[in-house]
Amino acid sequence: MPLVLGVMWQQDDVYSFENAGIPAGVDIEKLTDIGQWISDELGIPNGSRVGAALVAKKKSTVPAATSSPAMSTTRQWDAVEDTREYRVSRSGVILKTYNTPIQLSTT
């Protein structure tokens, strides 16, 4: 399910979310193909930096490097700070903050 319904995702946004470990629910490869098709039909260059880079990578004749065990597609998030109001997690140089729901007493 997309992260936000009713929003037209742009390639750069989807790429940024996915790299931050936030699933956007959008297939970036298909989105890139559609963006390139639209650019080709209109006769204009691809306005997305991510889209243009992925299209160029796809067209290159250099075979893709095989992934090594050292390269992981998922991030390892470590808790930096956890309070009643918020939580901060870190993966390398990237920080994520979360609002922590406060449990209300039903008594």
From TrEMBL:
Record protein name field: Uncharacterized protein
